[in-house]
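User: Before I run my own analysis I want an independent prediction to cross-check against. Here's the chain; please return only the structure tokens and, at the end, one sentence I can use as a sanity check.
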Amino acid sequence: MAANEVPSESPGEVRGETRRRASRYVVPVAVAGVAAATIGLVPALAAAGDPDLPEITAAQLIEKIAGSETQTLSGTFKVSTDLGLPALGGLVSGLGGQGGGASTADPAQKLTELVSGTHTLRLAADGPERQRLTLLDGSDEYSLIHNGDDVWAYDSRSNEVFHEKDASAGRTPEKELPATPKELADEVLKAAGDTTSITVDGTARVAGRDAYQLVIKPKQAGSTVASVKIAVDAASGTPLKFTLSSVEGGKPVVDAGFTKVDFARPDASVFAFEAPKGAKVTEGAAEEETSRKLPENFEKDFGEDFGKEFGQGFGDLGKGLNVLGEGWTTIAKLDTGAPAPGTDEAPKEIRGFLDSFGDEVTGKFGSGTLFKTKLVNALLTDDGKVYVGAVTKDALVEAANSGR
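Assistant: Structure tokens:
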């Protein structure tokens, strides 16, 4: 076991402090979560020379993250992701709501742009009630503002505004958070169990601040994840950088972190918003149905029966769902009960569309199509079964061959 590696079990501890408010954890967790889910940072962030910091164990570092008092911050980070996806043009954004007159400011559509390419973002937070995220692309800006009960989004390119009420406002969490940072750290380590290695691997300078490097690696073979690395601010415990690497090597799938950060409280005016004069304002409820329409020219490109034929195989996604394996090699199996849309029974437009970014695979299960990214892979068999997970092609084929 490495010097800083966490043991499979951690001793309990008698509660020695009063229960902390849930909002204490909001900003650190939100920063890490947004980074992990949507963004990546170019390698130029690292400053020259690694700082000399006191030694710390992985358990202590996780406790430091959980115990962070950070509620306010503002900063800048850059976005660069490499999922290894094929070029799909405007298909993804179109499915997100571009057709049917949907607002271009709708976050459900706009934030899908972060899954590829390079972007610059500004972030400001003042506790759980006020946050602002601004996406800068050239001279255009897209801002997402949460201020109390309201969520606003503004797209300067189209001069459109999207507004909806915060559905989580005033809602009581269904599950109580751990009482102390130590309890939260213990739960994280317990969840890691025998499938995960958690260590501290040196230090770094991120956005001009000293940081520890927390490294998380699967112990199981077959996962597409090589490692997850989180740079944690040595003073505040706030995550500053998040890097997710694939076993395929090359550029990280996600490499996210601040270029500048300030933990002072942002001015209240940062979270104020008023729709610009002449802007089109769309209320969220009005977009619920129109956002599901297919993008313009979709039927022309892929056949008018595409939506009906493709959707037929996935009509009841909840039926026949089965989870195989555990930990990093978990695979979700779905039996759609219908032939796959890529078989000979499907229109040639559909088969051609799937063949353009899928690879044919065969095994004891028969034949099917494999759809690959650097992180998540999916196997769609010709008899309508779907196997999906952050696992390798061989792991998916083995699962299909097992007939489970």
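Sanity check: Residues 6-48, 88-100, 286-292, 309-315 have pLDDT under 50 and may be disordered.
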